[in-house]
Amino acid sequence: MRFQHFSRGFSLFIFLLLMIAAISGWLTSTPLNFFLRLDPALATTSVISGRYFLAAFIPALVVLLLTVLLGRFFCGHICPMGTTLDISDSLFCPSTRQAVNSAALRKIKYLLLFFLLFAALFGISLIFWATPLGLITRFYGLLIQPLLATLGSALLDAGHPFFEWLDISSLLFIDLQTPQFSTQLFILVFFIALAGFARLTPRFWCRYLCPAGALMALASAKPFVRRHVSDGCTQCGECVHSCPMSAIDAEDSQLTAFDECIVCLKCETVCPEGVVSFTTAGKDPAIKHTVLSISRRSFLSTAAVGSCTALIGQPDLNAATLPLRPPAAVPEASFLARCIRCGECMLACPTNTLQPVWLEAGFYGMFSPTLTPRIGFCDPNCHQCADVCPTDAIRALDPLERVWAKTGTATIAKDHCLAWEQQKNCMVCDEVCPFDAIEFASVDGNPVTVPFVREDRCAGCGYCEYHCPVKSPVAIAVSASGALRLSNRSYKDTAKKAGLHLSLDTSRQPSGAPESQYPGKKGGATGFDDESQDSVAPGFTE
Amino acid sequence: MDRREFLKRQARGALILSSGLAVTKIVSAAPDPDIAVVKGTPAAATRGAVELLGGIRKFVKPGNRVVIKPNMSFSVPPERASNTHPEVVRELVILCKEAGASKILVLDHTLASPDSCLDTSEIRPACDALGEKVVFAINRPEFYQEIDITGARDLHKTQIVKEALKADVLIAAPVAKSHSSTGVSLSMKGMMGLIWDRRIMHWQDLHTGIVDLCTQLKADLTVIDGSRVLSTNGPGGPGKVIRQDTIIASGDMVAADAYAVASFEWYGKRFKPRQVKHILEAHRRGLGRMDLENLNIHTLSL
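Predict the joint structure of the above. Result:
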């Protein structure tokens, strides 16, 4: 087996293993987002657009420095995107195809990189459209994973009668989450397109489009360890034809485009004379770097387009229309500058409440995560989304702080509520609220007690909306209003100062929140049929 | 001798030595009571109450499949009294094993994340420590089977967990707690934890729906955990938790619920069983009896 087969396979295996760990909630203390931290384009644009630096970006820096020494080894041996496209290549592409080798197309990836960097300069991160690690995480996490889970779930269901026959308790109650994500169809089409382009030429993405590849190409103009052809080359052309990047000159196979070479070592393997090696020796002639062929006009116009794109479409930060963000998401402008839409938070979310948005957060907010309480509640004891976020768009908090990360506030739609409108005994919202933020009171003319939301106790977790028996439109819904979004301050201190009483208090008595101020609340029990009209015991009767 | 064994012996000893009633029962074979009430530590009182009622073998025969339905639907620790005390559930599992049950399952359809509920309630760790896994959340539609409830007034159709339909013995093991829409949540209300779609019940008359459901899921044995009572703000709490050290057992779930309503304080007041609509309706429909004054009730303090 060639070294590259091993290295690529191993990398993809570790990548998928970390993803499975993130999905299942194992190994929470390990850096499950490690691969995302290796992408230099992602790190660079994030640093520029977010105006911040994280230790998590250091691995990308190391990759970039190693590229100076070793060339684009990352593209050839580590990148799961490259490996995945190679796999689809070997499955779907005829081996007889003629590679389309276009010097003009090669420039695209640099122009794309410049475009992204200039947009980032003005605080807008568009890297999510082109970061290979982010895209591939979305592909496996938000498309392949749900597909396999659905398949597995169908198998479990099919096997259930057999499990019943076996009568083994643990088998009877196996539960497999089958998450679904919006925008799945888009991801599918996007990857079909990428795989389809590979019919034109192998590694179409890596050659022509990938901005991370472009950044690494800039660093590998003449790497320390590079392709070397010693005397004895017969110009047979084997290496030229086998090179997946067309990095070898067709006329003179001793000439290498080091910026395009991904160090896959294939030329070394196929050379019948055995004269190709990757060493530090020799004055190896290089093909002129592609970036040098980009005209000043092209560069300037790309820079202008990037800057203008950022300037004309600053996201709408009107809090009333903002989507519900995950708990402890940094303030919206920073959030959009940091979030790379990799989908890690969504695939790690145990209740599937985190979903990618389309345009709800504006054009620049596409694919960013939102809580969808109708699909799942946001468990106040869980912060897996923050644990896996590679760019700190969601701040990882201490569990005691986490409880105070208010994501929004629930509002009751009285004209749909079973208690308010239909005078039915329904207190499901109160029953499920982990924050004890629902209060019941008697109002004139209604024989049953009705719910009120205590905004100071509501964390926006969405248990109420998820469990509400009224379907569309739901009778209690969470909006982002009142959400706490802090870049660095303490959630607990800030929330307390704002007069919030968010608590999952496990003590026997309710925490020291002030008594209810709602009209009609006369104190006493609810749900009882009451003997005396002046006090309410909920659910009891005369 | 481990702690469990110690408690067992202590309970047996206490029953025989301190209870004239129990002695009389053994000697004279007096009829078993309708309701047994024992005060003591959760495990010992659970065992005591079941013994007083006639012993577990009266309810569970060798080879029987048993489903125990506790409250473990909330991700809160035992002291919040929203879930059944883990020692009560564990003692019931031990009792069923002693009676030779072929399969024991402790099931609930949780409201919060299953693992979090089962573990924070301490019920799963307590029961799994006995050996095999018996505690499961039933949060998947495939575990259920749709059935028609004949004679129902509101809930004509529902999906009940298959294992409960298959079971020879159904044991209700609720904690005693208040409930903002049904007054109390005891053995009858607790059966909503064995069905899939609970939302629909809130569209109908909830009390009637509960009685309809209990005609189908009628517990053979009810053991109400009144070791501590969530007297206000139930079912989720946090509310006023009152320590009562009491376990109530009965073969009649309506009677057990009625006794729990009458014997504990709710929202600082006293209520009669008939003030809880579903208890009144269950009594009227002949599902069980709430007329405590006419029932044979044995009480005992360990």
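Confidence is low (pLDDT under 50) at residues 506-525, 530-534 of chain A.
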